[in-house]
Amino acid sequence: MVLLLPARCADSPMILGLLQPTTEEKMKEYRRQQKRKRELWGRAKILERRFSYRWLEQQLFEAERRARRGKTHTTDVYIFELRLVDNIKQLAHDIWGYGYKPTPGIKFVVKRPVPREVYAAPFRDRVVHHFLFDLVYPWWDNMFINNSYSCRYGKGALYGMEMLRRQIRRVSENYTREAYILKLDVQGFFMSLNHKKLMERVEWGLDIQFDGAPKLKRLLKYLWRMVIFTDPKEGVRLRGKKSDWDILPPTKILANQPPGTGIVIGNLTSQLLSNIYMDLLDRYIMYKLKYTNYGRYVDDFYIVVPAIQKKKLLRDVAKIRDFLKNEMLLTLHPKKLYLQEVKHGVEFLGFVVKPYYTMITKRFKNNFTRAAIEVEWGIRSLDAVASYLGRLKHVDGKKFAANLFEWVGWEYRF
Asked: Which residues are registered as beta bridge partners of 305?
């Protein structure tokens, strides 16, 4: 059984007062937990007092403003905003009366950076996704461990790369001692997520976060059920050619998955759900197996250990595999298990961390070159190049950027 506690107190023996504190340190921890519990209860009671049909409309208007950012030129947003007030009122009416159901979207295949099947929800449903996200994300973000990097404010790929670099230097004592890194991956992650397991985890969080707001909690549980259990394949429209799906393996196609498994790639709620579910694995590895130099980005995760723990780490791979299979109904990818000494360089999130410097990968170079060519041809905006340059500021890749700009015919000032 996995112990589920807030990240900052997960290794404490105090579990919300179930065990009596016996030392001064445990007493302080006990008081902090009780204070946190009172704060959650107070916030929930405030939300419960505000909870009304008018409050719901206001929250949906705010969610619509957040959902439209960067999407104002799309047809879906334009049509929704032609009758914005009427559409928001109708959406609030459906939600308040427990009659809301997600509507069919479109599906297509993206080829970069890797081929994936994407389901894009209609703008109406994206408003609901933002409404749910804004209510539950702050509490979950406080629950997540610090070494979970994907789809979180203040985190991301650069943060994950920097944390890996620090962990390697800490374990190897700045590359003066032998250290190893183990990289693992979950096979067909998004397509293998079990709906019932996901809902149990979401409800567990809602029961704690909104313990003092029973009416709001009941509504949120209903909306999450609609998001998780509604089949996105029903009525979905196809964008592109059917042959586009030929490049995808069967494990990455939602239609090939058994009933009750798989969530779509492309929704805001899917990003949050992936972190909520994988938080179970994070806690198992860090607090049960006691590997503190650990990090995860979506379903890719790593463990850094000194040479003395190498054999133990290899033995614990079987424990991780069994935990994923038995507790989470997921499969550890059999062909993506890498163990290597850190001094040889570690590839992670588009970077290669080597002793005393960090390089960019070949895929990053190819994607940057393609983006620069497409900007020069007028296919893409300068924002595409700016994003790559922003990442290059943190690694040793300025020489490559200078050569690329010279080849394209641009002036390089970095």
From this structure: 180
What is the C-alpha to C-alpha distance for residues 33 and 15, in angstroms, rounded to an integer? 8
Are the beta carbons of 294 and 303 closer than 8 angstroms? yes
Q: In this predicted structure, what is the pLDDT of residue 265?
A: 86
Signed CA dihedral, 163, 166, 171, 172: sign only: positive
Distance CA 60, CA 91 (A): 8
The pair of structure tokens assigned to 258 is 């058994």
Please check whether residue 389 is in contact with residue 197, taking contact to mean a CB–CB distance below 8 angstroms: no
Sign of CA dihedral 141, 145, 146, 151: negative
How far is 369 from 367, CA to CA, in rounded Å? 5
Q: Which amino acid is residue 377, in one-letter code? A: W
The tokens 């950076």 sit on which residue? 113
Residue labelled with tokens 């030929």: 246
Compute, in degrees rounded to 10, the torsion defined by CA atoms 39, 44, 50, 51.
170
DSSP secondary structure letter of residue 23 = S
Quick one: tokens of 62? 């705010």
Closest CA to 274 of 153, 160, 193: 193
| Tokens 């058994």 -> residue | 258
pLDDT band for position 11 (cuts 50, 70, 90):
very low
DSSP state letters, 248-282: S-GGG-GGGSPTTB---SS-HHHHHHHHHHHHHHH
Confidence check: pLDDT of 297 > 60: yes
How many C-beta atoms surround the C-beta of residue 9 within 10 A?
16
Q: Are 199 and 261 in contact (CB under 8 A)?
A: no
Give residue 248's identity as a one-letter amino acid code: L
Cite the beta strand spans of 187-280 per DSSP E: 237-238
**pTM for this predicted structure:** 0.84
**3-state DSSP assignment of residue 379:** coil
Take residue 267 and report the two structure tokens written for it: 């929704």
State the DSSP code for 176: T
DSSP 104: P
Tell me the CB-side half-sphere exposure of residue 240, using CA atoms within 13 A: 15
